[in-house]
Amino acid sequence: MSQVTTTAQDAPFTLSRDALGRLVYTDAEGHSQIGVVPVRAFPLAAPDEGISMVGPEGKELFWVEHLSQLPVGQRQLLEDELASREFVPQIKRLLSVSTFSSPSTWTVDTDRGVTTLVLKGEEDIRRLPGARSSLLITSGHGIVFLVPDLLAMDRHSKKLLERFL
């Protein structure tokens, strides 16, 4: 059972894991909530800002303005929990595209390995708000892929993507 205590925004709290691995939030008065869930307000645009600790009934228990406010142990516990719930593979490069019309099958190299995805239409490629060179690509199966920096991709990948933008 890992436990870390911190004071953020003048509200002391304790965050720990129970024997089943669930997060336990304990407020300043000693009231505990088992099974709390951290939720990012802006998971892609500002992943380290605006984290809400939500209780099992769906009520917000605590708001963390920025993860850097928290001590290292507390921050690591929250980051581990968030990482276990989120799945957004990052596309490192495009290997091939079956056709330049929709739908098309793409073979991509991601941070989780090589995979294929079906792009139903150009509208499934969106620029990430506030980041002019980041893209979100939604596959035909509803999986969202992130291109963190289009400008940092290799020439071949940029050329293929430009056909769809």
From TrEMBL:
<dbReference type="Pfam" id="PF08909">
    <property type="entry name" value="DUF1854"/>
</dbReference>
<dbReference type="InterPro" id="IPR015005">
    <property type="entry name" value="DUF1854"/>
</dbReference>
<protein>
    <submittedName>
        <fullName>DUF1854 domain-containing protein</fullName>
    </submittedName>
</protein>
<feature type="domain" description="DUF1854">
    <location>
        <begin position="35"/>
        <end position="164"/>
    </location>
</feature>
